[in-house]
Design brief:
It is found in: Cell membrane. This protein is mostly helical and 285 residues long. The protein has one domain. The chain is built from 11 helices and no strands. The radius of gyration is 18 Å and the shape is globular.
């Protein structure tokens, strides 16, 4: 069961880094994100309608669904702001590192999961590598823009932690992962509609330049999280959530080689350390 969960999480991490790369390279990020989630929202709406009309859930599950959509909306808004101030290879690992540190700690307490001492070592390596990768150790030399990027990245990490734990509860109640993705799409679309449609010229320009990555991103973005939601059913959250941070390794390499971001050597070394931590946690966690 864990092997299957591991495969799903690794695939989730790869697809997550790719659609984040598309977002970073877009002309107008808020328009790109709105277009991506709107297209996905249209496609997945029938799944949500069928789920809500054919299956009955306790009241607290419906309230959790609303909360999940709200947190997802905050996440997508903060993600847009984060990429406005920082490099992908800087802010991406910091936001993921924040989530990697918080999710296992909270899930151990809330869901009564367990992790071995070797798993703790692997988790520690992952978290340390993520924060070093982000350049947080050199925060005194950061510009005002870098500091804003850090603040937004931490907020993104808190949102990731929140909606992951909420969605774990919803999935545990028997709700469909695909229908749950639609709830996150709706939350994102509601938050981004006003700024995205404030300029029709920007909307037309974004679709003219990036329509291919919008369409592909509308598959990869929900697909990435669907894979992770299914993995939640097969393995403890405290084990698989840090493994998903393999997306940071992919994201860092994409940022260095495609976006030509700086400090490539140290970031590649830290990516290797994170990978070692993931392997440790996966095999002996």
């Amino acid at each position: 069961m864990f092997a299957a969960a591991l495969i799903l999480v690794l695939a989730s991490g790869m697809t997550h880094s790719i659609w984040n790369l598309f977002t970073k390279r877009s002309t107008k990020r808020v328009v790109f994100l709105w277009s991506l989630h709107s297209l996905s929202c249209i496609c997945l709406l029938p799944y949500l309608i069928r789920e809500l009309t054919t299956v009955s859930f306790p009241l607290h599950v419906y309230l959790m669904m609303l909360l999940s959509g709200g947190v997802q909306g905050c996440y997508i808004w903060l993600l847009n702001k984060t990429y406005a101030y920082g490099d992908m290879s800087q802010v991406y690992p910091f936001s993921r590192g924040t989530a990697a540190a918080l999710i296992p700690l909270v899930s151990l307490a809330v869901f009564h999961e367990r992790i071995s001492w070797l798993g703790c070592i692997g988790l520690g390596i992952i978290i340390a590598g993520l924060f070093i990768l982000s350049g947080a150790a050199r925060i005194r030399t950061w510009t005002a823009s870098n500091r804003k990027a850090l603040l937004y990245a931490v907020s993104v990490g808190i949102c990731i932690t929140s909606y992951t734990l909420i969605d774990k509860t919803i999935i545990g109640a028997g709700f469909s992962p695909i229908a749950l993705i639609e709830i996150s799409n709706i939350g994102s679309v509601l938050v981004l509609t006003a700024p995205a449609l404030s300029s029709m010229a920007n909307l037309k320009q974004e679709w003219r330049i990036n329509w291919k990555t919008i369409v592909l991103g509308s598959i990869l973005s929900p697909g990435s999280y669907v894979l992770f939601l299914y993995a939640m059913k097969l393995a403890p959250l405290s084990h698989i959530a840090p493994v998903r941070e393999i997306s940071t390794v992919f994201g860092t390499l994409l940022g260095i080689f495609l976006l030509k971001e700086s400090q490539g050597r140290i970031r590649i070394i830290m990516s290797a350390c994170i990978t070692c931590g993931i392997i440790t946690l996966s095999l002996w966690g």
